[in-house]
Design brief:
- The chain is 39% helix and 16% strand.
- With 366 residues, the chain is α/β, with parallel strands linked by helices.
- It has a 6-stranded parallel β-sheet with strand order 11-10-9-12-13-14, with helices on both faces.
- The longest helix is centred in the C-terminal third of the chain and has 29 residues.
- The termini are close together.
């Protein structure tokens, strides 16, 4: 079965991770799948005939449920009626500023985006949702056929079956026992949010003097250059790595005993391998993931608010207090929320398999 996988992997490492794991899931659970990668930021008006020779078009995960996703950010095909091949969305998520009701229930898709999603609906496959907030966002705009599958990136096929164990070696019993710590960089609002990463790095070095600490950049430096200045790195004994533009760079996290930072897919990658991960939410994406998996949130003010007012007098101190409290809480609770999160990932993995079998059935009935 020939599948056209429409990928959002352009620059950001997290999008390449979604692409990689979407492809792996399709190849594992769709019979005789032959997956070809297409980039979503390209217009395919001249290649409609080529697309129609596929058995299935799949839009891989990412924050696709955006107001103006089609055609502003995803031109795809102007005349959707020319496409005869069934199409599906695999674990897209809503991208809002917050999960407050004023956005979740009142922000509306553009007319063109609404039409694109109605085109997808005609394939009689549920709209795949990354989290429950995304599903509710769709429901409140009149869509009825949705399925919460989680993000494709949640599922590391090498580790999914062993995520939940009686003893997980990387669960540390005291907050002074993390030998390797990775800090992922801010995504939105950089360089506005750089001070938060900087103060986090200094706090972690002071509290974990023996740890190897790596700063990890997922989408170039782009205004974050002060974080890699030699004097700063040397003073706090920090390393750094840029994993922009590929999925393989995520291997920096493989032996990570604690990830803490801003990148949703650093959080997801670490959780998918049974590592401890703390996400600082910059918007609704991370809150949606944590809500689905049962993980407590640390949330920044919306970066537009920070840009307007600047960082408030006590904001950095309060930010560090929230991290310190969080680390103590997960140690005191014997990492219960992470054990539950790993179980939840396994639960949603079964839902993803059901979704993929629906895709297969629809393509075969064509």
């Amino acid at each position: 079965m020939r599948i056209a996988l429409m990928s959002g992997g352009y620059v950001n490492a997290g999008d390449f991770l979604i692409e990689k794991r979407s492809k792996e899931l399709l190849e594992k659970f769709v019979a005789d799948a032959e997956v070809h990668i297409f980039k979503r930021n390209i217009c395919y008006n001249s290649k409609v005939d080529e697309l129609n020779r596929y058995d299935l078009i799949v839009f891989g995960g990412g924050p696709g449920y955006q107001v103006h996703i089609y055609p502003n950010h995803m031109p795809f095909v102007s005349d959707l009626e020319k496409l005869t091949v069934p199409a599906a969305i695999m674990g897209w998520g809503w991208w809002g500023k917050t999960v407050l009701a004023e956005e979740l229930y009142h922000v509306k898709f553009s007319t063109q985006t609404q039409a694109f999603l109605q085109y997808i609906e005609r394939s009689n496959v549920p709209l795949g949702c990354r989290d429950w907030d995304s599903l509710h966002f769709l429901k409140n705009q009149g869509f009825e056929n949705m399925m919460m599958t989680g993000c494709p990136a949640w599922y590391d096929l090498e580790h999914i079956d062993t995520l939940v164990q009686e003893e997980v070696p990387r669960l540390q019993q005291t907050k002074a026992d993390y030998p390797k710590i990775c800090i992922s960089d801010p995504g939105r609002g950089s360089p506005i949010t750089v001070p938060f990463m900087k103060v986090m790095a200094t706090y972690l070095r002071e509290n974990y003097p023996k740890a190897s600490i790596q700063l990890v950049f997922h989408r170039l430096l782009d205004g974050k250059e002060e974080l890699v200045e030699e004097s700063f790195l040397k003073e706090y004994d920090l390393g750094y790595v840029d994993i922009t533009g590929k999925a393989d760079g995520f291997s920096v996290y493989d032996d990570c005993s604690l990830h803490i930072g801003f990148r949703v897919h650093a959080h997801i990658y670490n959780l998918s391998r049974g590592n401890i991960s703390i996400l600082v939410n910059e918007d609704a994406r991370g809150a949606g993931v944590n809500g689905a998996l049962g993980i407590q949130n640390i949330t920044l003010r919306p970066y537009n608010d920070i840009a307007k007012t600047g960082i408030l007098s006590n904001e950095l101190d309060d930010f560090i207090k929230s991290i310190d409290d969080y680390l103590q809480y997960i140690a005191d609770s014997n990492f219960l929320q992470y054990r539950n999160a790993y179980s939840n990932i396994q639960f949603y993995y079964k839902r993803m398999q059901q979704f993929l079998k629906l895709l297969e059935r629809q393509a075969l009935s064509r």
